[in-house]
Design goal:
By secondary structure, the chain is α/β, with parallel strands linked by helices. The chain is about 50% helix and about 10% strand. A hairpin with a 2-residue loop joins strand 2 (about 15-20) and strand 3 (about 20-30). The relative contact order is 0.06.
């Protein structure tokens, strides 16, 4: 999603471009090859090892320092110091005394840079070496620093770091941040040292949270703290009450999990003894393979969470952005540009700045989007892929679950949908997307009252009035609705959708690409033939690809143009209108 920064050594003219609201910097060299953003740090370190921190170093390293400083918004001296911390910390806090020794600097000389270290710390590019797990660094008495996870992620992506801290997180945001740190460690993006350092920063920045207060009260050691936190995160995320130790293997490793299993089963682990973790319960029987957090843990470490509501929300068809599978989409040219515009809009930096600009001008800050068009043209999948690309979770609404036979109950349910969504916004790192899929039933034209349908019509109109009002008050929210029946859309809804995007059937070029995507073994000529002959939507092509796969498994069928043509004919409901032009021999 974000463009990679392409930075070059000295010898060329500087170019600055803006793409997707992420700043991309480059220098165009005369003859030298392109280098990546991270390569600039290697160049700086290589020159520092040779020239130390003298004038010769700053002269030779100037093009690299200048570019790092430009991207990170710091001075060239701070760029050099940041590079040294990045190089020498290796996931642990590194004393600036250690850096001074490596650079052959005296104690007095390195102290001259203390203001620059503090400036880097104020920008959250480095973290100081005092926290819950490291009471004080021992080496020279000088402070130590490390580069935090969010900065590392920005550097790996080659983009400007957005100054974001863990300070002042709400209860749910605290555990969301913890899950993000665990995920980064599980994906091998950071070391175990970084895991501990990030949690230290998280705890120190949220000393008033129930988890941190309880942690200090009970005095758990480092390993047990991380283990209990992992249990709490897993327990909050799962629909069931029980957690298997095996699901934590990616965090603690196979050997350590085996040791934990023995200690848990014998009751000798400290978390078992202190009644923070207990055997899982399956139909009243103790389950030695699964475990759960106890009432004591819920009432202390999780006391500031509305657990009942949280567990209910997690079951309300909420989809994490990280759980959405990538799916390549093929659109006609006009539609492709509209989708890219939405992706650009919902990229966090753009979203925040646009929302602020609208608020400053006293304009509504709700982003309401309608996807309308033929069935099978990718409306729902487009919403998922936009969410995935912008890192936003999706809260899906099952329209059928909002309807009730009891008078007044349907209105309460639809109101509760928006109340839960607003609560999600408060506790989410990024504003999630509220998805009304196949929303024809609630977006259609108002019902006329009659003696026969007075009750149902009154209820449906009341529901629509609630949705219209909530759309008006959805400050900072993102609502996406999909419908196959745009012509039946009520005029009041037309005005309230900021973006109305028409999904037409894919053109011939897009159909050919979909055929090749769904059946990679299909030769391009056959894909073109099928795309010319059959005016299918992407959903219909998906159906045919699935049928072919099933036939291959059941009957050992091979891929032939005639065989696919037969499946295409079966897919058509109007047999008389199956051919656009020529026949396949």
């Amino acid at each position: 999603m974000f463009p990679s920064l392409v930075l070059f050594p000295k010898g060329g003219s500087k170019i600055k471009t803006i793409m997707d609201n992420e700043e991309e910097f480059s220098v165009k060299p005369a003859k030298q090859e392109d280098i990546s953003f991270l390569d600039n740090f290697e160049k700086i370190i290589a020159l520092a090892n040779v020239n130390k921190l003298g004038e010769v170093f700053f002269e030779n390293a100037k093009p690299y320092l200048e570019l790092v400083a430009l991207v990170l918004g710091i001075t060239e001296v701070q760029a050099a110091l940041f590079s040294l911390v990045l190089e020498h910390s290796d996931g642990e806090f590194v004393s600036i005394g250690t850096i001074a020794k490596a650079m052959n600097c005296g104690r007095i000389q390195i102290l001259k840079y203390m203001d620059d270290f503090e400036a880097l710390e104020n920008k959250n590019l480095i973290k100081a070496g005092k926290d819950l797990f490291h009471s004080q660094l021992q080496s020279s008495g000088l402070p130590g620093y490390y580069v935090p996870l969010n900065v590392i992620k920005a550097l790996r992506a080659g983009r400007r770091y957005r100054n974001k801290t863990y300070c002042g997180l709400g209860p749910q945001e605290f555990f969301d941040a913890a899950k993000e740190i665990f995920t980064a460690f599980r994906n091998n993006n950071v070391s175990r040292h970084y895991l501990y350092n990030e949690f230290s920063t998280l705890f120190e920045s949220n000393s008033k949270s129930a988890f941190v207060r309880s942690l200090m009260s009970f005095g758990l050691n480092k390993k047990n703290t991380i283990l209990l936190l992992a249990f709490c995160c897993a327990w909050l995320e799962k629909d069931t009450e029980n957690v298997s130790l095996s699901c934590l293997r990616s965090i603690f490793g196979f050997v350590e999990i085996r040791q934990l299993e023995k200690l848990f089963k014998t009751g000798n682990h400290q978390l078992i003894k202190d009644d923070f973790i207990a055997n899982g319960n399956d139909d009243g029987m103790a389950d030695t393979e699964t475990w759960t957090i106890t009432k004591k843990t819920r009432e202390t470490f999780l006391s500031d969470l509305n657990i009942k509501e949280k567990k209910q929300q997690d079951r309300e068809n909420n989809i994490k952005a990280s759980a959405i599978r990538e799916c390549q989409m093929f659109y006609p040219m006009g539609l492709s540009s509209r989708i890219n515009e939405l992706i650009k809009l919902l990229t966090e930096d753009n979203f925040v700045s646009i929302k602020q600009r609208l608020a400053d001008r006293r304009m509504p800050t709700a982003f309401t989007i309608l996807f309308q068009g033929y069935s099978g043209t990718g409306k729902t999948e487009s919403a998922y892929q936009i969410a995935r690309l912008t890192g936003r979770d999706i809260c899906t609404v099952d329209i059928s679950e909002t309807k009730s036979q009891w008078f007044g109950e349907s209105e309460k349910r639809i109101k509760a949908v928006f109340d839960r969504y607003k609560n999600m916004i408060k506790h989410a790192a990024l504003t999630p997307i509220l998805l009304f899929n196949e929303a024809d039933a609630v977006l259609c034209k108002r019902q006329e009252f009659s003696e026969i349908r007075r009750g149902p019509a009154q209820t449906e109109n009341a529901i629509q009035n609630i949705i219209l009002q909530e759309m008006e008050n959805l400050n900072g929210g993102i609502l996406v609705a999909t419908t196959n029946m745009a012509l039946n859309l009520d005029r009041a809804f037309e005005r309230r959708f900021l973006y109305k995007i028409e999904f037409e059937k894919p053109d011939q070029k897009a159909r050919s690409a979909i055929w090749r995507s769904r059946l990679p073994e299909l030769i391009p000529g056959d894909a073109d033939t099928l795309s010319l002959r059959y005016d299918f939507s992407g959903g219909q092509i998906d159906n045919i690809a699935r049928k072919h796969t099933i036939n291959t498994i059941l009957n050992g069928s091979t891929l032939t143009l005639d065989g696919l043509a037969a499946l295409c004919d079966d897919e058509l409901t109007d047999k008389a209108a199956k051919h656009i032009g020529f026949c396949v021999n």
